[in-house]
Amino acid sequence: MSERLVDRRIIRTKRMIRDALTMLMEEKGFEAITVRDLTERADINRGTFYLHYEDKYDLLEQCEEEIINGIKKLTLKLNLKDALSFDGQKEPFPFIVYLFEYFHENSSFMKAALGPNGDAAFQEKLKELIKNTFYQNILSNLQQEDMLVPIDFLIAYISSANLGVIQHWLESGMEKSPREMALILARITLLGPRHVTGLYSKEK
Amino acid sequence: MSERLVDRRIIRTKRMIRDALTMLMEEKGFEAITVRDLTERADINRGTFYLHYEDKYDLLEQCEEEIINGIKKLTLKLNLKDALSFDGQKEPFPFIVYLFEYFHENSSFMKAALGPNGDAAFQEKLKELIKNTFYQNILSNLQQEDMLVPIDFLIAYISSANLGVIQHWLESGMEKSPREMALILARITLLGPRHVTGLYSKEK
DNA sequence: AAAATAAATGAACATCATGTTGATTATCCA
DNA sequence: TGGATAATCAACATGATGTTCATTTATTTT
């Protein structure tokens, strides 16, 4: 591949800058970070930063894109068969488990980027990804006339809900395993928020 | 009250600055805005800005706080009776309708602040508000042992989902009425995402 | 191992936004 | 109307930005 063609120093420098970005985002949020902060933390010359990135926004963008691409690679493993054959309440969707494992590997950056001092645009990108995945694999072959609500609002509901659960998982220290998280998500989505409270049986 | 004590000029200046903030957030996002941008757009002296705000973050904070307080005033109208007596599928919760009407009145700022170039911290504040409202009025008297998922994840799910629907409504031009939106939200939350697709009847 | 290539450094520079100050003008309110 | 105060204007120091160029250092290639 073309990876071999990249100079070791470039890889090293970029890695140090990206690590510095993650650390500083955790400490003070993205807005407050200066290029000087980044290069001091990474212990490189300030000019070197500009050899690799236009500015801090370019850096953030590239880091986000890397995460997004990692997720997209995972979605290739997902196929329609998986999604429809599982009931998802006793055995979690394998794909969702992989997803949470991937988030765990990249948790430092993701936690910072999805936190209150993070980047709203990154949230939006992830929601978009969730939307497409859900839509292409589950919702696309539904009849619009069967729907009790407009499909675009349903999609907005589901994708935001899932992202919100991921955010809460990251913020609360990732104590549940990826497997447990997949089960939790499946239960709420399949049974509905009210049903999982246990209220359902009393009223029906 | 103490409102009378405020000089007209202050009210005028603050209003112009806040309007400028909303416009510029729509145009280029909060991060890209400078104090100079704000004062040029508002057609006031740059120094005047600093008579009222510490910096642009202080300005944003104050605008957000105003919205939050407006919502909190609405929640005072909400009581337990309302929340539990309605089934919410034919008649919407009055409180939720008021809420969407309030969002409509402040849609310019809200759309900008909740959009991809907006402020992730504001999203978090709103989610926190939704969490508390839901929890205090509905979820607090549930038995933890009845729950099929941990309650904190359920709350994260619901609050993010609701915020996501609000965001989608704002971004898609607010074509549905507040009443319709309240019904849509109630249906998904009460019946569950899968049930509202119409798939439910075929499988149960 | 030596030569060629390319990345990183360090210093300097112009530019721009920031936040503050003091003097002056315009507006408000009683 | 007169006193109070908000807004303006000009000026200033500070610090971040993005760029340049000569130099040093690390790497790849031959």
Outline:
Chain A is mainly α and 204 residues long. Helices cover 69% and strands 0% of the residues of chain A.
**Topology pattern of chain A, helix = H, strand = E:** HHHHHHHHHHH
- The averaged pLDDT of chain A comes out at 90
Distance between the termini of chain A: 60 Å
Quaternary organisation: homodimer
User: How many DSSP helices of chain A?
Assistant: 11
Indicate the overall shape of chain A. elongated
Structural class of chain A: mainly alpha
What is the largest interface, and how many residues per chain? A-B, 52 and 52 residues
CATH topology of the largest domain in chain A: Tetracycline Repressor, domain 2
What is the name of the CATH superfamily of the largest domain in chain A? Tetracycline Repressor, domain 2
Strand content of chain A: under 5%
How big is the Rg of chain A?
Answer: 20 Å
Largest sheet of chain A: none
Write down the domain tally of chain A.
2
